[in-house]
Design a protein that fits this description.
Layout: E1 39-41, E2 44-50, E3 67-71, E4 80-86, E5 93-94, E6 97-98, E7 102-107, E8 112-117, E9 126-134, E10 138-147, E11 163-168, E12 174-179, E13 184-189, E14 195-198, E15 219-224, E16 230-235, E17 251-260, E18 263-273, E19 279-285, E20 290-299, E21 303-312, E22 336-342, E23 365-373, E24 378-385, E25 397-403
Antiparallel strand pairs: 1-4, 2-3, 4-25, 5-6, 7-8, 8-9, 9-10, 11-12, 12-13, 13-14, 15-16, 16-17, 17-18, 19-20, 20-21, 21-22, 23-24, 24-25
């Protein structure tokens, strides 16, 4: 039985978003769960203006049948506007499971995506298949569920699997999911949820005492390039040997894997600096060494800080042999990044919060995925909050319009890039 829901609300303007994309069939259960949660929208759609195309892999979706032209109505920054949000999934249930703790989002095909559940007691580790639609308002429904299982068919649970990162692989038969517990990156078959492979993780990335990683500060971010050849796994927090600098910035590592003979193997590590007090919670790979990053922090009594950045790994240095990132002095050794938006600067748009927040729109945002193409070098960007299965937090899905134009300026790194249009 579903928990009571608040009546729907809508801001007077139509949402405008192209479809999620690529070609993965979703989870095997197909029962639908409707939703009536709070909703807000701030954009206006004005027809189609062009062809499709775009990214595949983890968190990167293609553009469907055509681009949409959007009149921005909810500006967060010069590059980002809020198109809408929905609380449809908040405190819902599906086939006897509580829908909560959603930590990652991966587009699969038109209007469909998968959401990964993180560590929830002894309940089964699982994926939900979402149906995301954009008419007058943004809405989300659960269409299916896949339980993630060991090779012998026994389900993983919150006791041994803390799902945080998700990649829907090309071909549509499998996903890669990262767990913070060890950490690990495993491949699962969507037809029955069984594990079919596990990727190598360098020893120093293991959780202490086996390695140098702190508990609950490991592979929070996972993404693949559109062609599926490169996989990035980002650490939420620094290794003990790396730490934070005098300004409180996290000195973190992103593992780069490359696919060779059908299998991913770690080939390099890249140095990434978070903003002071924040952690790296998600990455989206674009093309030609370009990424988006999501950083998040929380201050008791104040609330969340959530920021989206454009990142360049073009020509990035391999820091695998560097014992401590605190010893790096050459700015070219760090990935360059530029702030696209601080979500606190978006219009509240009728959102409410159950705990103090600098903007009631904010919550514990952990998931990020790229959707369809819009006009003017813009793409749809989805964000997803993890309610930690708490009565004081909200599961919220956001849709943003983000400009991804040529030639980002990336201060803080001497080696800059001029990427092609995303």
């Amino acid at each position: 039985m579903r928990s009571p829901r608040r009546p729907a609300q809508a801001i007077t303007a139509a949402a405008a978003i192209a479809l999620l994309a690529t070609s993965t069939p979703a989870a095997h259960t197909t029962t639908a769960v409707g939703a009536t949660g709070k909703t807000g929208t701030t954009g206006t759609a004005v027809g189609a203006v062009g062809g499709a195309g775009g990214a595949g892999g983890a968190g990167a979706g293609a553009g469907g049948a055509g681009a949409e032209r959007v009149v921005d109505g909810g500006r967060c920054s010069a590059d980002v506007s809020l198109l809408g949000f929905t609380d449809d999934l908040d405190k819902a249930t599906f086939e006897g499971t509580a829908v909560g703790g959603l930590s990652a989002l991966a587009p699969t095909r038109a209007s469909r995506a998968l959401a990964l559940v993180d560590n929830v007691g002894t309940t089964p580790a699982r994926l939900y298949e979402l149906d995301i639609t954009h008419r007058r308002t943004l809405s989300a429904q659960i269409r299916g569920m896949t339980t993630l299982r060991r090779p012998d068919g026994v389900p993983y649970t919150g006791a041994d699997f803390d799902g945080e990162g998700l990649v829907a692989e090309r071909g549509g038969q499998t996903v890669l999911a990262s767990s913070e517990t060890e950490p690990s990156i495993r491949r699962f078959r969507l037809s029955d949820g069984r594990q079919t492979a596990e990727l190598q993780v360098p020893e120093r990335f293991r959780v202490t005492p086996s390695g140098e990683a702190a508990v609950n500060q490991t592979f929070e971010a996972l993404t693949a390039t559109p062609d599926g050849r490169v996989l990035y796994a980002g650490m939420e927090g620094p290794l003990s040997a790396d730490g934070r600098d005098a300004e409180g910035r996290g000195l973190q590592r992103i593992l780069r894997y490359e696919r060779r003979s059908g299998a991913y193997a770690p080939v390099a590590q890249h140095a990434y600096r978070t903003d002071p007090g924040l952690g790296l919670v998600e990455l989206v790979a674009l093309a030609d060494g370009q990424l988006l990053s999501l950083e998040r922090g929380f201050t008791s009594g104040v609330g969340n800080t959530v920021r989206v950045f454009r990142v360049s790994a073009t020509g990035a240095t391999d820091v695998s042999g560097v014992e401590s990132l605190s010893a790096l002095t050459d700015q070219r050794a760090w990935l360059g990044k530029r702030l696209l938006a601080d979500i606190a600067d978006c219009p509240p748009s009728g959102a409410t919060a159950r705990q103090p927040q600098p903007n009631p729109l904010l919550d514990n945002i952990e998931g990020m995925a790229l959707g369809g193409r819009l006009s003017g070098h813009r793409r749809t960007l989805y964000l997803l909050s993890d309610d930690n299965n708490s009565a004081t937090q909200t599961t919220r899905l956001y849709a943003l319009s983000v400009r991804l134009k040529n030639g980002p300026e990336l201060p803080g790194r001497a080696l800059l890039s001029r990427p092609p249009t995303s």
